[in-house]
Write a structure and sequence with these properties.
Distance between the termini: 43 Å
Number of helices: 12
Order of helices and strands: EEEHHEEHEHEHEHEHEEHHEHEEEHHEE
Radius of gyration: 21 Å
Helix content: 25-40%
Number of strands: 17
Mean pLDDT: 95
Bound molecules: thymidine-5'-diphosphate
Low-confidence stretches: none
Largest sheet: 7 strands, mixed
Amino acid sequence: MNKFFLNLGSQPLANNYLNKYFKKQIKYNLKLYFNNRTNLVSISKRIPSKKMFNNKYPYKSSLSKTMQKSFLDLSFEIKKRFNPKFFLEIGSNDGTLIKNFPKNKTIAIEPCSNLAKITKKRGYKTYSEFWDNKLVNKLLKKHNKVDLIYSANTLTHISNLDDVFSSINRLLCDEGILIIEDPSLLECIKKVSYDQFYNEHIYVFSALSVQNILKKFNLEIFDIKNLNTHGGSLRYYIKKKKNNKFKIHKSVKQQLKIEIKFGLDKLSTYRKFAKLTLKSKTKLLSLLKNLKISGKKIIGYGATAKATTVLNYCKIDDNYIDYFLDTTPDKANKFMPGKKIKILKYKKRLLTNVDYIFLGAWNFKKEIFIKEKKFIKNGGKFITHVPSPRILLK
Ligand code: TYD
């Protein structure tokens, strides 16, 4: 049964960057639930996929060196460990991963047509469609079954998980492998990063919940890797139960044990998280208020969907944060969703006279700190809200 544990208030669509600030924007109530039968954590309100993933989707994986490296390393690993005959990616974005595979042995699935266009142009067979059983019917008419399906940060965006996994199961050949990676619920709860929740993230998965979903489809996890991407992610290696080629690695038992020890199977853990989230809001607001009282200039860095959750939950406006900087061309000169805070295209000179930077892209802290050595050397400071709001000393 779904049990309510946190209300993150009235939130706009997290990636809906508008050219003009409108006081009245479409908003919805962001409430979080824990299912004590399946251990699945989800948001209540489901926005139609077409409203979120269309020809204006701004996020491009290729804009981050961290993501480029993570995908390059993964491509080496996949080739060495599984040597797939045919590779299919669900949610291929702008092709940052698939470009490392031969064009004649791949299929890209990307519903956002602005992104699908990029892989199509490069010569990759791309279907600009949503992943579901209907698409798989079409694929099965045109192609053979596939021996490797990969999906990063996509399956958590799809409401109907039964359809997701039954369709994958149909397309995957018996000895095939499914690899999925998504933000880790354990890391999210540990870091009090309530900003992992927004309209696109219908679910935040744990190994416990993924294991439960897979059971229905005779699929099982045979290996798990902890990754640093997106503030802490899990990569699940999945096979059909009848495939005995891969032994179940001890990493699976280990992860499940850690999650149970932490209490990811108990409602009380989520209630505690809700209390810490409220504390985090109070502390962040008081930190920003005090800095403003002492005349400091604060800006934001990384106009992330996560930052949208923080700004709208904490009610942070341009009276605290002057503007956000972001490298994404499609976000430039637009406004943070729901807030009158402008996003400016990243330029080093926009950091002069800035005292503090709120790290919207805290998941790229390492990359950003290397890039902004000079700002730090000149006395500039970063603010983060994870695991609790504070000024970062390094
Ligand atoms: P992302 O990590 O995908 O967060 P979310 O899923 O919450 O939207 O987005 C990172 C954002 O940060 C993206 O808009 C690009 C931006 N960014 C910069 O502006 N400069 C940087 O150096 C890095 C690494 C990211």
